Amino acid sequence: MKIIPEITNRFSPTTFTEQELSEEQLTTLFTAAGKAASSYNEQPWRFVYALKQDSEAFKNILECLVEGNQEWAKNAAALVITVSKKNFTKNEKANAHNRHDLGLAVGNLCAQATAMGLHLHQMGGFSAEKAINNLNIPEGFEPVTVIALGYYDGDFVETPRKPIDEIVFKGKWK
Question: What structural domains does the chain harbor?
Answer without folding.
Answer: 5-152 (3.40.109.10)
